[in-house]
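Reposting from the mailing list since nobody answered there.

I have sequence plus structure tokens for a pair of proteins and want to know whether others read the tokens the same way I do. The first protein:
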Amino acid sequence: MRAIVLSAGQGKRLLPLTATRPKCLLDVGDDQSVLDVQLGALARCGIEHTTVLVGFGADHVDHDLAVASFGEMEVSTLYNPFYAITDNLATCWVARVAMTDDFILLNGDTLFEDELLRQVIDAPDSPIAVTIDRKPEYDDDDMKVTLGADCRLAAIGKRLPLHTVDGESIGMLRFQGSGVQTYTDALNLAMRQPESLSNWYLSVVNELAQKIEVQTTSIEGLWWAEIDSPEDLAAVRGHFLQPDNRPNPSKSTDRPVGSRSGR
């Protein structure tokens, strides 16, 4: 299985920390960046190749990846030249060339424990599966989901009526078999519409859910976090300060520890 990480954005809500380096390179503990932690987890869970979508600060990402290794997992980058004027649907469309086999798609600001990813990979086969969590209340920024029969996805979006919400997407999806071509075809079709430049890639999944079966995988009780604000970053750093939660240093690097300036 492959993985695709959408990390083209700057992360403006985290300024000035992201003034020159993108959000995915912020240090979250033990001299490891958000991207380091993601790639380490993907490698430990058996992902063979990961494609990182880059945009803002792409040279910094390329430099960091050029001097790091994540076991036997190969890592490459794809550049989205439109990152400054589009939302992540366009970034996902750029990534379609890497959608050649079964793959995991994840947001570049989503961190998670290894067991969560293993549960997603090992979930029952389905062409498209959205990873979801549940909590007592949801805010405007949550990517909310409505479920139908047998936990199938009925709708996904930030503006769903609260009385219809059954959970939230954590920004991780799995595509298998026919779902790979189905999604790439839908991306190509969506990008013909002018409004798609300001849409999220999950809007395509929402449209597909009205036509075909899209399953969900619940990871309730497992740790994950999304980094959108300084408060989110502080919470993640606090999580990794706990000895049992410290990032697993699965990468090797030619740099001396502590050499990553500017994070």
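The second protein, same order (residues first, tokens after):
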Amino acid sequence: MDAPRCTDNPTVIKYIGSKRLLVDQIVSLCNTIAPTGGSVIDLFSGTSRVGHALKAAGFGVHANDHNAYAHTLAMCYIQADAPKLIDQATQIIKDLNAIASGDGHAGFITQTYCLDSRFFHPDNGRRIDAMRTYIEKLNLDPELKAIVLTSLIEAADRVDSTTGVQMAYLKSWAPRARKRIELRLPNILAHPTRHPCSAHQLDAIDAAKALTADIAYLDPPYNQHSYLGNYHIWETLVRWDHPEVYGVARKRIDCRERKSPYNSKIKIADAFARLIDSIDAGTLIVSFNNEGYLGREQIETLLANRGPLAVLDRDHPRYVGCKIGIHNQTGKKVGKVGKVRNTEYFFIAGDGAHRIADAQRKLIAA
């Protein structure tokens, strides 16, 4: 079998809150703040798309996320050093594709997410079960295992039958769901010269207290949508703990228990204030938008003690799911399409705010 293809992008899973269209601007902001390079803490790393781009730009990146699947993505795209692992990862992914060329065997994924629900076609469910069982038996070092699991997550995402989140699945199979699953080598990078990179799985405040960098990038959850609830299958695929599940979407039982204060309209302001006070970095970049529980003036007030402040805003398309309307848990359309654009804000507080303001003035003058 041929060697696995390498993905062109850092990660390609469908993800609400993705900064795919804003990542170039974020890298530009960091380059303006620290033109000679430096280090960045990403306290809510998610897919690690932003951290990967910063790593490619030469920054030392320290990624953090409390969800296991996000930590795995960060281990792959941030902490892993490509020259040390790429040959081993290539061979394992090749072996996994050989397994996927067969029929596989039915297990937890097939029963729970193909038969009890319809997130994946049963043919691919059996292959996912077989590959994930094989990975567990290999007893891999954490970084290598993260690369392989990331490859599996991304491959499964390419053949799912959802509206983009794992709260619902389509009534009829999506065309992509009938394609045979195929793994690709993730686009892992070498560490930048003189700048180590790391991945952490901590509460955001604990990570803020433990990590130090020139810049801290904050892209927290900002409304009621829980990332764990929306991507519970990836959490299970990483943990491989065969959890108790509930509801039509067969969500992990801990989706009921693991609640983030950032998903609470009542708790978010206090949590955000305590987090800001805990960060050890000269400059903070906060990414937020006008659909969040906190308004622009509230965030400006919370950042007031961090020194000078610059605010940038940008009109931005909303997540693709909003364009296809509201669906219930079986994929039936039950609501109309809402607004398709929002305003994204970048709040730059601290030492780097003057550099951003100067750059903006020069751009306007030009």
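Reply #1 (J.P.):
I read it the same way you do. The mean pLDDT is 90.
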